[in-house]
Amino acid sequence: MKKVLVVDDEPHVRRIMQMTLQKNGYKVLVAQDGLAGLEMVRKEMPDAIVLDIEMPRMNGIDMCKNLYKEFPETSCKTFIASSRAEDHFRDWIEDYSSVTFLEKPVSVRSLVERLAKALSPEQNNP
Amino acid sequence: MIQSVKNKVLQSLQKERMGLSLVACALLVVMGISVMMAFYLSQYQQTQNRTQGLSLTRLVAEIPFDKLASIKTKNTLKNIFYSNLQSDLAYILLTDLSGARVSEVSNAGVLAPQLSVSMEPTQWKGERELQLNGSTIIEFYAPIFTGSEHKGFVSVGYFLPSYLSLSQFVPYIATIVLPVFLLTPIFYGLMRREVKPLVSAHNDISDHFNSMKNNPIEISADGELSDFVGNFNEYFGQLRRQIEYLEVEKTQSQVNEKIVAYNFNRFEQLLDQLPDAVLALDELGSPIFSNARMQSLLHVTQDQILNSPVQEWCNELPLREFVQRCQKNGQVTQDTLKLSLSDGPVTLLSVKSVPVYDDIDGASQFVGSMIVMKDDSALAQMQESRDHFIAHVSHELKTPLNTLAMYSESLLGAENNDPEFKAEALNVIHDETERMSELINNLLSITQLETGGMNIDRHRVKMNEFIQDIFDNVSKSDASQSIDFVLEMPSVVSSVAIDKNLMRIAINNLLTNAIKYNRENGRVTLKVEELNDQIKLSVSDTGIGIKIEDQPKVFDKFFRSEEEGVRERSGHGLGLTLTRDIINLHGGRISVTSEPEQGTEFTIEFQKESNLLKWAS
Q: What ipTM did this prediction achieve?
């Protein structure tokens, strides 16, 4: 069973994502901010992360950078979602091939499809 | 009086100085001629006397001694003497070898001096000068013989001619000198006649300059001076016209100078009023003007800037480089510079340099540059604040919208038929819709308040009823189930003039925050106090409190603490901003005191009546 980590400071978002992804056959881990998310990764490396940007303590961008710096060989895919349109919220992604940007509001169905595609065996073993 | 006479005499002498000079010269010439003639005649007389003396001595010496000494012929010496009496002959003396006087003939009052001659034959003949009765005598002597026998000596004395003795020549000298002396005034008269036109011209010019009249001067003259005077008149006419032209030019120039100075001062004052900094450079790039804004912007004085290289008065490298660039190229140049003036916040300076050309001798020539600097910091800050605000609003709206989209999409999906999930989803959708609605209402209210679009609508409100109503509504809401509510309010509080709706929003915000950030089974206290002309209202809770460093920021738009306790609770950071704006609109003030983990107290103080109403009453 593939593991997906949902990191968001909005409890309702964590809840609906957890429910939806569990129904689609994923094991779902949740964290309320970047720092908690990074701790979770260290304990149990997920196959994919659904990440919000604006969170207290540590934002999604810093968590993502720390993650790939700490685990450079990881195959973990990250979907980072934000409502912010400014360039500096998006430009950094170009340096990370495993990171995909999602525009808020996020469609849960679309997210499930993207996750399925990203975690499919063909994608991982081309 | 004496002074006046003296002045007149001096003036007359001054006028006749040429005649006086001429007379003086004539006198000098006459004196010179006289002295020279006297000297010449004196020398001539001496030579004559010496020649006569030598001849007479030789003549007497050739007569035999015995003949001269003989009684019979003793008149021979007298005859010789008297035949030469017309000359300066003083005496003739005949002595024997013993020196005894044998015969002597002399002028009246003259005693021939004793002759003593050495017996050495070479010394027998000669001449000598003697002083006799105050006169100088030149004496010639020679031996005298009878046959070949030396018998004695003869001496002949002559008066040396004195200058007094020259008086006999006065008529002769006068004959030569007098014509010279007499010709002098005639010559002077003729000369005066010739220079009369020049004197007249001199007087006219003097009169002209003394009277400062612009009467043209015309001098007339005949004869040889007519050409000279004609040229003089023409030259003087040209000179006069040139002076008149220069005087007109000078007056015009002075007027123009005053007009230019006046206009320049006005122009300077005008430039000093500009909100933008202005710096003018000459064609060589040297600063020639800066306005007041330029000086205040860079904290320098006009004197420091003028004619000084930019590196001497400007510490800002980007601005220095821009000015140096403008000094070189003489083209329109513009840029936006970021400066840290006086170590203050970054100043955003829009700078533009425009070359200035002037029409010189029909050709357009570069005469300098005008640099205008506009401080766009406030504009940039405003722009940045606006962008920030829009980004925040967008985020705050999209966050509940994201939740709404997710839950509604799940509800619509065929896979979610679980009634429990449906109930949960509907609740979430309801809460998030409320949240969005509250956000939008707060945003609209704040925008209206900050743009002046909302006017305060004061009405007299019974404070007891008003507060009780708010308190009841909040304390009975679903969110307040586990909170202990306390209202401390005097039984009678004066009515106040407030905008009821706005004040309700403000107090409501404080109470809902006190509930939201409280602990389970915590307490919320609403306390009302009536002061002299003010109402003091405080809302305190026993909640999570606010970090000390966050306390000054709690009224900032969109501020939310990073604390976990805050993030766990929904909110958009506009409630306290709106509350502060409403209290400010009522002329009141709001403050906060908080102890982390202990609780927070917000205090509002506002006037019972508006200042306007108080003044009216």
A: 0.89
